[in-house]
Structure formats: C-alpha cells, structure tokens
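Worked example 2:
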Amino acid sequence: MIADLPRRGLSARTQAMEVRAVRQLAEHDHKSPDRITEEALRAYVLALKHVTHDSRRASPIARCGLTCVYTHTWRRAWTTLTFLRPPREQKLPVILSPAAVRTRLACVRLPRYRVCLSTIYACGLRLQEGTPLQGSALDAARRRRHVRQGQGAKDRDVPLPPRLLARLRQSWGTPRHPGWICPAPGRGGTGLATASTPMPRSSRQDAFRAALQERGSHKRAGVHTRRHSWATPLLEAGLTRPLIQAYLGQQSPSTTALYTHLTRPAQELAGVAINRLMEDRCWSSSRRSSACTAPRIGPTAQTRCGPAMGRPCRPSNPVGQQRWAVTSRAGNTAKTPSLARTPAHTAMVPHA
C-alpha cells in the first residue's frame, strides 16, 4: 500500500492520513489488515458510523485508505467499501468580528505564536499554509505574500498588509533563522536560530486554545475560523467573489458563495424584511384582520389577507362574474344565483 500511494499523485499529508486509517482498522480488530474478513470490515464500518460518529471529513479519508489497501493493493472485490459514504451536512462557519479577532490575538502570550496567527488571519491562509513561511516568499515592493504548493498543489499570491510586513521583519530579526520566519522553537525555545523544521501545527492550535480559554469565549472557534473571519468583511467591503476565491485558493465558487449568507448587509436586509412583515397592519392576533370588514359571500369565498400577503386588502367587483345573493325569507334562507348587474356584497382580495 505504501508503494502504491505515491503513484496516485497524492500529497505526503494525504498519504499519511490514509495509512493512519488502515492502522486504526488493525487496532480496532487487534489483527493484521490482511487477516480481516469482509464481515469484520462491515462491523468496523458500522462502528465508524454509529459508535465513533466520524465527521464529514474523516469518513472520506477512511474510505479512501481502506479502498486503496483492499481494492488496489490486494485485489479484493468487496462490496462493503461501496457503502461507506460520508453523511451529508451543510454547516455555516463561525465568524468573528475584527475586534474579536484582535482581542483574542492579544491574549496569545508568546510573540512567535502571535505573529504566526496574525499572518494566518491577515492573509486568509489555511493552517498548513501559515507555518512554512520563508523570507523569499515575501515581496515587499508589491506587498504580496507568495503561497507555495497550497491545497491542491497550487501556488497563489495574497495581499500583504504593511503593518504585518513590519511585524514579520521584527520577528525574523530576533532568532535570525536563515530560512524560516516562524521556525520550530525546540525544547525551551532555545533552538530557533538552528531549527530544521518550521513551527508545528499542534503548537499553534494549543496557543490559540489557551487564548480562547483565557478570554472565556464560548464559541467553537479554531485557527481556521480566522480564515472565514477574513473573507466575510471583504465581501461586506464590496470585493468580488472571484477575487476572494483566488485569494483563498478555493476551487469551487459555491464554497466562496457561502460567505454571502454571513455578511452584515445580507443579515440587515433580512432583518428589515422580517420587521416589516411583523409590523404589517394586517398582522393581528385575531383570526380575521380588522382591515377586512366586509362580510364573506359565497360558500368558497376567502379574504386572503394577513402577514403572508404583506399588503392590505381592497374590494374587487369584476364585471361578468356570477354572484351569489342571499335572499332572506320568512322562516327560510335560500341561496339563489343573481346576475352580475345585481349589486351584492363583494369579496375582499389583496392588492395585485
């Protein structure tokens, strides 16, 4: 399997995650994967769905890893792997205001973590794109930050604010590493100048969680939340969605269109429409509105007024329409059809 993974053109991180999925299967059944039967694999697939409750992102990884080892490597035509599908869900991301982001950045204690998290927010980067930052990737003249081999092995340029550039220069001058701006601190933080790897992902996540706990925030926010909080104000400022899609490095326009539901103008417009709906004069607690004072005529006549229509009612008497007049007789009430010329009670219909 390890020999077949590079032939599929996958990144090193994706290969490691698929190998981890096969290792988790072996740990679950306490035996080698080549000795696991299809019935045991079916029980493991059901456990992923009903016991561990794998998320929308974990289910495709487990499916790809198990399919690679059993279908491509060992040539086993098992139908169980075809039923391993991720659950369908559509969630809106958590959005933080710029003031909330600055407050949480101020709670980060160590300056090197604060600079790294500020770079991720100011450039709209992913978690794995913010750490391997080198001095050659910064273009001070054009104020651009070059992202090499982002998600999908694609390069792109993102804007670099001048204040962030000054902070990166100040942070880089302290350890003065020849390559990395945010190198791995090592034990005790003494190996910054001689580090061979950039800052690990887990340390940035731990620093951000500690800042959230110190702030006392109850939102389920993470490092990736800063990416959503960066894109939403850009839409509010009037930037086009194709430009924001290029900055974020997203492949599908529908992913970028998700932020339009979270912008402040869209929410304010929806709030105005809902308030106008509730303040309509046809909205009443009684079954019939006070604006509709005419009696109902005919066995199927309806007024059709209320908050769903959004407008008050007005009388309408179309020519040529057959009416029903109510004729009162002594001791008996009968309904007889009348001509259109005969004046009768008119039904109430809403404005066109």
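The two ends are 68 Å apart (CA to CA). The chain has three domains: 6-83, 98-185+192-264, 293-352.
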